[in-house]
Amino acid sequence: MSIISQKICTIGDFGVGKTSLIRRFVEREFSDEYLSTVGVKISRKTMDLATDKPDNSIKVQFLIWDIEGKTKFKGIAPSYLQGAKGAIIVADLTRKETILNLQEHIDLFASINPKKTKIILAFNKFDLVDQEKPINIIKDELISKNNRIISTYYTSAKTGENVDNMFYTLAENIIAEK
Amino acid sequence: MNDLPEKTADLEAPATDKLDTLLDLLVELTTTEENQLSSSNSHKEIVQSDRDLPIKNYSIDNNFQESHLSNLYKSIDELRELQLQSEKKINDSIDTFNTLLPLIKELITIKTEYNKELIIKTIVPIIDEIIKQKFLQNSQRMGAAIAPILPEAISQKIDLSPGEIAKAIAPEIAVSIQEQIKIDRDSISKTIGPEMGKAIKAQIELEKDTMIDALYPIIGSTISKYMAEVVSSINDKVENALSIEGFKRKIWAKIKGVSEAELILAEATDFEVKAVFLINKTSGLVMAEVQPESEQKLESEMLGGMLTAIRSFVNDCILQAEENTELNEIEYSGSKIILEVAGYCYLAILVKGDPSKKFIREMREVFSEIVISHGKEISEFDGDRETISPEIEAQLKTLVQTNKTKKKSHPPTTIIIILIVTIATIISPLVYIYWRNRIAHTIEFNAAIALESEPELSIYRLIPEVKNGKLIVSGKVPSDRLRQQAIKTLQNIAVEENLTLENKILAVKIPPDLAITKQEVQTLSSILNFQEGLNIYTKFNEKTGTVEIEGSIANNLSIEQIITTYKQIPGVNVVVSKLKINIPTITTRIYFNSDSAELIPKDIDTKIKQVKDLLDRYPKLHLRIIGHGDRKGKLSDNQELAIKRAISTGEALKSLGADPKRIHISGRSKLDSDTLSDRPSWLNRYVSFETFIPSTVIE
């Protein structure tokens, strides 16, 4: 059984918890050493995905490019996004501006990868906010504007809530597209 | 409502009028229904008729309903009748039309001759309409019908007005190609590919400058990349020329008998390929890889990702000012990662050491071959390595294997060369010295043999020695003559061996051993006495070193030679010769007539000739010719006549070739002792001969 490798990216503003989400997902296959000069860290995680046929799973290897968050001094290097089949765009539920910046990140990713790419929005630090926080309007608006968004998740890198679900959903959607 | 009967009464009118009437009737009915609904709450349901007319529910009185329905049915029946009649008429008209067709054709032909434009103007819209209609009815048949004439039509049109055709189809070409690419991508490539080269060549010939401008960013980058490598290499070598490495290289070049440049090239091959990766340029996913099985494998996917990130970072953030430049290599502690980039992928080669230019060239060839042969699968790579041809991995392996072959053969060769050079360095001088000594020894041996072969020199200790290109002879001899003789003996050897002859022989006065001298004198005498015609004996005076030689010697032997031989004996200072020469005598007499000094002719051929022969046999022999006279007449006359007779004889000998210096003339008037006075006087008129050799004493 062959392994299908795919590049995905995590993008979002500085401090939204991208690295923590990846750390939670890839567990031991994670390096904390940032390639600080270059501004990207690459992690790897292999997943077994079920297929329509019984006893016939597919191994998908995610090469996750954790791209250093955008700050007011430094933008994201667009070329890092090239060749990615999917992206997890992360916002911090405790910082409204990171949610408002999501559209900008979506546009950047879509402009660089115009074909058949999948996006998941991760509203992170769900453990820190009121469960009833009213962001549904923004969320719905983003989904209606961007047909690449396949799903949105309230995630918590701290508790692990929805983290694996999110990555597996992305993997399944990418493989289904093939 | 009042109009309804009128409408029904017009059913005999043409079909269209009937239809209008029917519609009006329906409108009337509907209006009536609405009015009644608004005025009363009582409704009656009308069941839908089983006929195919749209019926609305309405509520009216029954009489009115029946009357109008009856009219309606009647109208429908009339309509059907009219439809059948119309169809019949149409069929009849087609037949009529078919009958008229030849006539119409003839009319059109005639009319065309007179007014062609009018005919065209009339017919063209009809034809357009017909084609449209036919195409809608059956597009395939229309296509089949038109297809055979299309090529010729297009060809004719191109000939007549190529510009128009170009203008017409130009906008469609790009779209057509795009569509064809969607349907079958390879077909366009296969069609255009072979002509691309020619087209580019032709375009270069037409617009060279434009092509240069177009290609410059690519070619310039490639050339600058290559030149940078070459210049860097040259700089390194120049900088190292005077270093220890440089001197080492020079020495090695001399030892190996190759140029320094070749050695530099060989040094450049001192590297090892550790791994080769073919990586997708944008995603960083590894498409193919070759890693040595013996070593711990690198995490290719992580490596591919990080290299791609670094490439992107450098290209975006550092090289962005310089277009078409690329990150070519990453160097780290004696190793480097070479990056060779193509359209959709790049090659990353982990190399320990400095790869040679040859390897870089090979790598580019292999990479170029991969890109050309597998461009499609590379460009369409989507993360599944199984979609990548195994040939790519095989081609990448050649890069590692080529290098391995070199590396495997390299160390033993180096070691062997080093060993050979070391041994040669140590042994060569020894061998050379041995060889030189052997040659010198041979020459010295031959020289000693040559000296031993000379009897006079053999008794002296003369030492030949070869040194510094010279044949040196040392020793002592008792005389300068022997010294020179030794040099003369060795001269040929020195010339043959290309040596300079140096004479260190000392000529010294050695006190002779008188006993030996005396013995040698006696030995020499004994040896000489073996010669025919020689009978000598010697006395040696030890005090004065004088040898006195007595005895007799044949006059054809050289007394001088004998004396010289004795003088060569060491200790002999003086040689006194008292040798007597055994001289042949001539008893022949030549007689003359009275008062005549004229030779008798027969004596010249016989006696004079015999004397001449004798003189020839004894070249040192001198001849005294003595003339004699009888006693008749005056004594003085006889004496004069006797001399004349001697002279005439001498002249006769000279005329036969005798040396005048060896002929001495003499005359006698007195009778010889053997001349008797009482004998006949003619016997006293003769010439006699005395032979002699002047005696010599040589010191």
Report the average pLDDT across residues of chain B.
77
The CATH architecture of the domain at 590-692 in chain B is: 2-Layer Sandwich
CATH C-level class of the domain at 590-692 in chain B is Alpha Beta
User: Percentage of helical residues of chain A?
Assistant: 25-40%
Number of strands of chain A: 6
Terminal Cα span of chain B = 199 Å
The low-confidence parts of chain B are: 1-13, 38-60
Task: Write out key terms for the chains shown.
heterodimer; A: 178 residues; alpha/beta; Rossmann fold; six-stranded mixed β-sheet; 28% strand; B: 699 residues; alpha+beta; Histidine-containing Protein, Chain: A; five-stranded antiparallel β-sheet; four-stranded mixed β-sheet; 59% helix; elongated; disordered N terminus
What does this structure look like?
Chain A is α/β, with parallel strands linked by helices and 178 residues long. Chain A starts with a strand and ends with a helix. Chain A has helices spanning 18-26, 96-100, 102-112, 136-145, 163-177, and strands spanning 3-12, 40-49, 58-67, 86-92, 118-124, 149-154. Helices cover 28% and strands 28% of the residues of chain A. Among the domains of chain B are: 4-102, no CATH class; 116-164, no CATH class; 514-582, Histidine-containing Protein, Chain: A; 590-692, 60s Ribosomal Protein L30, Chain: A. Chain B has helices at residues 4-9, 15-39, 62-114, 116-137, 139-146, 150-160, 162-183, 185-206, 208-239, 244-256, 260-268, 300-318, 357-373, 375-379, 390-453, 455-458, 480-496, 514-528, 559-567, 601-617, 635-655, and strands at residues 271-280, 286-290, 329-332, 335-341, 345-353, 462-467, 470-477, 500-507, 534-541, 546-554, 574-582, 590-591, 622-628, 663-668, 686-692. A five-stranded antiparallel beta sheet of chain B has the order 2-1-5-4-3. Chain B has a four-stranded mixed beta sheet with strand order 12-15-13-14. Chain B has a three-stranded mixed beta sheet with strand order 6-7-8. The longest helix of chain B is centred in the middle third of the chain and has 64 residues, at 390-453. Chain B is elongated, with a radius of gyration of 73 Å. The chains are: A alpha/beta (178), B alpha+beta (699). At the A-B interface, β1, β2 and β3 of A face α12 of B.
